[in-house]
């Protein structure tokens, strides 16, 4: 058994990079975070698990992420949601288990809401629903708002590398996909792993998501000393255990 790779052709000539392990279902589908990619520690660990166990697995890079084409400044929640739905339609047979990390947790929820018949369960790691409005917007400094007003873009400093563009279009589009203001009608099983020392997604934000989701088959795990990435060996072990439980 091996992992294959390729590209999905998308509107406008853009291409989504993907990797897939053919195996027993339901397929586990990795949805990464904002400015993350499918070569990260957790995504790679799941690929190794799939190869070892014979489980079907798909990982991909959103528009303007990783190996996929596109200008990151043109990215929106709408576009990345469409990418996830395209992957389900074209690369997955039958129901899938969605594994969403950070922004991928939000995209996973939006995907489950759009195609509930295709989603068997969700495993969410430090999920960041509504992050554009609830986590990012309150932290934009005065000079950032001035840049957004004048140029439509602000370059936000990052703990993980070079500053990156936050556009007015991203913020306005993200507000249209808010899910935390009412009950979220997801009935599938949900497992949430959240670090108590996460500097990017406060654990109370992830708990708010857990409380809003309709499903009664939901387990929220607080890893008190965990950070945002939850990529330590013990965190990876918890992730794989959660995936095995629902898959």
Automatic annotation (TrEMBL):
Catalytic activity reported: S-hexadecanoyl-L-cysteinyl-[protein] + H2O = L-cysteinyl-[protein] + hexadecanoate + H(+); mycophenolic acid O-acyl-beta-D-glucuronide + H2O = mycophenolate + D-glucuronate + H(+)
Chain coiled-coil ranges: none
The EC number(s) this enzyme carries: 3.1.1.93, 3.1.2.22
Domain of life of the source: Bacteria
GO MF, one example: mycophenolic acid acyl-glucuronide esterase activity
One Pfam family here: Abhydrolase_6
Keywords: Hydrolase, Transit peptide
AB hydrolase-1 domain location: 49-238
Function as written in the Swiss-Prot or TrEMBL entry: Acts as an acyl-protein thioesterase that hydrolyzes fatty acids from acylated residues in proteins. Regulates the mitochondrial S-depalmitoylation of the nucleophilic active site residue of peroxiredoxin-5/PRDX5, a key antioxidant protein, therefore modulating mitochondrial antioxidant ability. Also catalyzes the deglucuronidation of mycophenolic acid acyl-glucuronide, an active metabolite of the immunosuppressant drug mycophenolate.
Name recorded for this polypeptide: Palmitoyl-protein thioesterase ABHD10, mitochondrial
């Amino acid at each position: 058994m091996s992992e294959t790779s390729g590209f999905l052709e998308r509107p406008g000539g853009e291409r989504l990079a993907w990797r897939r392990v053919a195996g027993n279902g339901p397929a586990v589908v990795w949805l990464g975070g904002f400015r993350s990619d499918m070569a990260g520690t957790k995504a790679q660990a799941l690929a190794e698990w799939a190869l070892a166990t014979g489980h079907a697995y798909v990982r991909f890079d959103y528009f303007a992420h990783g190996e996929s084409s596109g200008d990151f400044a043109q990215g929106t929640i709408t576009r990345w949601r469409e990418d996830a739905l395209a992957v389900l339609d074209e690369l997955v047979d039958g129901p899938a288990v969605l594994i969403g990390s950070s922004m991928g947790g939000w995209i996973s929820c939006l995907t489950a809401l759009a195609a509930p018949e295709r989603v068997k369960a969700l495993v969410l790691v430090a999920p960041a629903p509504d992050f554009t409005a609830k986590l990012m917007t309150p932290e934009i400094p005065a000079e950032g708002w001035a840049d957004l007003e004048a140029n439509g873009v602000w370059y936000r400093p990052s703990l993980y590398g070079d500053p990156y563009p936050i556009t007015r279009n991203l913020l306005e589009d993200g507000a249209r996909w808010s899910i935390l203001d009412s009950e979220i009608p997801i009935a599938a099983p949900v497992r949430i792993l959240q670090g108590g020392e996460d500097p990017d997604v406060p654990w109370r934000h992830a708990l708010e998501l857990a409380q809003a989701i309709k499903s009664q088959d939901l387990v929220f795990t607080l890893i008190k000393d965990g950070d945002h990435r939850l990529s330590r060996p013990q965190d990876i072990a918890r992730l794989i255990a959660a995936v095995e439980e629902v898959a």
